[in-house]
């Protein structure tokens, strides 16, 4: 039994993608991308990894598995495939592929995160953030483009440029928060400072951003200096929990909540509530689960090993309840998942356009891990496997009096 026979046993005689293997066998699928098994290590990764998804990811990251053609097209074709192999076929496949030799463990990719210490302690959170964000600002510049913003953009049209869409996202947040000249903004998890710079430059707001990534903080501080915004904008390399000032007019949290831990959401929202003056607003922008079923994240999977170690996703209802329980009145909510799919498509396009330079900067394994992560995330948003919600909360005025206009002004 050759590998191509195994492939058609699993996916049928007319598979949605082609197939090619190191044993010389192949299956054609006219005009479709080709899944290539380049090394026996691919089979070992699958056989020795409890989760098939992680085994495939390890094989792809190391190059034991590759796709000839467009990775997005291949993964989209396979996205809804349900494998249905009988017990007899499983035994036959196992024997044909080498039996117990499949259980030889190949070396793990170097890119996998291996964190120590108490989960969501300040030290471990710093290590988790560094794993993902401190791969080099020059690499992020290749992927994120001139906007240098690593969160969901806001598209007026599918053809809107990435830079214009990121500007629109920052401006929407600014208007929802009612930023104006002289108001004070705290941006937690500020990244390279996109929101801080936008608020200071376009609204005259005094903005403080905090990030656990030293490379982000240094890049953002330099951009603030170049924009002549030092009197209004500041970025600190600190944990958001170490911010001492209070009485901010507004708090923006754009892409931080995913790193906090679902078990810590109550304390997170209470902390942000305490940073605001009466009538102040919080804009919480984060990736969510599409429903409240199952655990907050599949532990031990590709995303937790390669992308966001210790990250977790809550359902939108959990987030809204957490905000209300902390004292906020949630006055507006919207789901921008289609916008994140478009954002990811733009990042993938940038990565492919700059592929050789990206590999030169971070190495082939990291570059392949990023390609797989960005393409898989795009499909997740397109197929409603994950969502992106913005929730606007207000700290009620004195004696609980309303602190918002009758209708939205943005």
Structure, described:
- The chain has 410 residues and is α/β, with parallel strands linked by helices.
- It contains 17 helices and 11 strands.
- The chain has helices at residues 3-11, 41-48, 52-62, 71-78, 87-96, 122-133, 137-144, 162-176, 194-203, 214-226, 257-260, 265-275, 302-307, 316-326, 337-353, 355-362, 364-382; strands at residues 18-21, 26-27, 34-37, 65-68, 184-188, 206-211, 233-237, 248-254, 276-288, 329-335, 387-394.
- The strands form 2 sheets. Strands 7-6-5-8-9-11-10 form a 7-stranded mixed β-sheet, with helices on both faces. It has a 4-stranded mixed β-sheet with strand order 2-1-3-4.
- Helix 10 (214-226) links the parallel strand 6 and strand 7 (233-237).
Which tags fit this structure?
2 domains; single chain; 410 residues; 11 strands; 4-stranded mixed sheet; Rossmann fold; 17 helices
What's the helix and strand layout?
Blueprint: H1 3-11, E1 18-21, E2 26-27, E3 34-37, H2 41-48, H3 52-62, E4 65-68, H4 71-78, H5 87-96, H6 122-133, H7 137-144, H8 162-176, E5 184-188, H9 194-203, E6 206-211, H10 214-226, E7 233-237, E8 248-254, H11 257-260, H12 265-275, E9 276-288, H13 302-307, H14 316-326, E10 329-335, H15 337-353, H16 355-362, H17 364-382, E11 387-394
Helix pairs in contact: 2-3, 3-17, 4-17, 7-16, 8-9, 12-14, 15-17, 16-17
Compact summary:
The protein is built from 17 helices and eleven strands.
In round numbers, the mean pLDDT is 91
Question: What's the N-to-C terminus distance?
Answer: 63 Å
Tell me the β content: 15-25%
Assigned CATH superfamily of the largest domain: Vaccinia Virus protein VP39
Major β-sheet, in short?
7 strands, mixed
CATH architecture of the largest domain: 3-Layer(aba) Sandwich
- What is the helix/strand order? HEEEHHEHHHHHEHEHEEHHEHHEHHHE
Give the domain tally: 2
Number of helices: 17
